[in-house]
Amino acid sequence: MSERVKVAQTDQIPPGKSRLVKAKGHEIALFNVDGSFYAISNVCPHSTGPLAEGRLYGKIVTCPWHGAQFDVTTGQYCGGQAVKPVTTYPVHIEGCSIFIEIN
Predict the structure, then answer these.
(1) What CATH number did the domain enclosing 57 receive?
(2) Which of 9, 12, 58, 94 is 20 to 30 Å from 52 at the Cα level?
């Protein structure tokens, strides 16, 4: 059964930026892409690099450790060292609050 967990306020993450949040034992990278919010696992599948610390270009984040790239809107692998996608989490906005859906 999934649960919505409040993790941040919309004004805490400017467009083009990210933030590490923790919810129900999960480390999650939360991104603001032109005013829309997306959440993926913070752990790069290549070598456990912290994706929330990666550089975001459009909707693509680059892992700061070895350059693996992922589409933050889908979790799909886009290039670099990793070859598998990352977990995505549904994001819900209620007023100015950001909630992530965790199973």
Answers:
(1) 2.102.10.10
(2) 94
